[in-house]
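Subject: design request, 313 residues
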């Protein structure tokens, strides 16, 4: 019974995470059009660190001990986190949220699948089906991206899209593996999220210091930075970290590929896109592939649990 409760909680965290990220991508895209990404990264990292440091203040002694025990993983998480947020903010300044989500989130499960392949205890047949479904889903996402390409934006989509897909997808996969590792070592979600932004803060400060006038912003703009930090960084990462405590990283990365669909729907409602029959067909095919794949991975996870229980007995 407790196990079912954990899975239920993990599913709830991912559900809220997906909705939050769809909103977040649109928010970042809107904000980076008027404010330099480096300035946003600097201030949002400060707000995120301060917010979670206040939350974790009561367990300071315990947290220091945990940080010392896991300092290597935390250092790697800081470095990779800094790179991934630079990729996200600078890409969303150029790419539409729907295009970005398709490329970025479509690449993560493929990278995680490859990373887990050596240690996989699942049958070769299931691995082959998983690989095929992941490939089909990614091709469908690329088809959606192709619908957005024109003579005026094709070069930008190819350039930034390649960075998002190759670098972003690979680094995000490693981040999820490290986050899962820290989640299983009893580091609270709020602690992990707060610790991962110091690298981003230092790097963005070093880059922005050459033009210190960029640090001078209006109080109203600071309020926007705070909102961006909470909606785009603090809340989504907290939810993801909580979910990874009970859910498998690969399964989680597959579920969150629903974000591009929600992002597209959100942009459709706000008038950014006009309705397209082709996009609707692609979205339906993608959704069907996603349902089949999540069902398969859930079945694989259940088999693993039964096997683990048998070994214990």
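Subject: RE: design request

Done. Sequence follows.
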């Amino acid at each position: 019974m407790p196990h079912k409760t954990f899975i239920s909680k993990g599913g709830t965290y991912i559900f809220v995470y997906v909705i939050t990220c769809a909103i977040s991508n649109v928010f970042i895209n809107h904000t980076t059009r008027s404010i330099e990404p480096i300035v946003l990264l600097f201030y949002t990292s400060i707000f995120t660190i301060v917010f979670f440091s206040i939350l974790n203040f009561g367990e300071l002694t315990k947290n220091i001990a945990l940080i010392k025990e896991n300092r290597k993983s935390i250092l790697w998480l800081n470095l990779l986190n800094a790179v991934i947020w630079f990729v996200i903010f600078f890409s969303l300044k150029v790419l539409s949220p729907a295009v970005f989500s398709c490329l970025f989130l479509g690449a993560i499960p493929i990278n995680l699948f490859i990373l887990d392949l050596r240690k996989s205890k699942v049958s070769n047949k299931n691995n082959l089906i998983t690989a095929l479904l992941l490939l089909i889903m990614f091709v469908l996402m690329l088809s959606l991206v192709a619908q957005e390409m024109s003579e005026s934006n094709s070069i930008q989509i190819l350039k930034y899209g390649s960075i998002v897909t190759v670098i972003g997808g690979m680094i995000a996969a490693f981040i999820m593996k490290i986050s899962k590792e820290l989640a299983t070592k009893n580091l609270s979600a709020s602690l992990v999220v707060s610790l991962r932004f110091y690298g981003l803060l230092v790097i963005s400060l070093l880059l922005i210091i050459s033009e210190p006038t960029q640090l001078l912003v209006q109080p109203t703009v600071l309020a926007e930075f705070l909102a961006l930090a909470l909606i785009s960084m603090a809340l989504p990462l907290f939810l993801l970290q909580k979910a990874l405590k009970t859910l498998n990283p690969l399964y989680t990365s597959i579920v969150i590929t629903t974000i591009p669909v929600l992002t597209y729907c959100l942009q459709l409602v706000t008038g950014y896109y006009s309705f397209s029959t082709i996009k609707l067909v692609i979205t339906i095919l993608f959704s069907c592939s996603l349902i089949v794949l999540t069902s398969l991975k859930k079945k694989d996870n259940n088999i693993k649990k039964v096997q683990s229980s048998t070994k214990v007995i």
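Residues 1-6, 306-313 have pLDDT under 50 and may be disordered.
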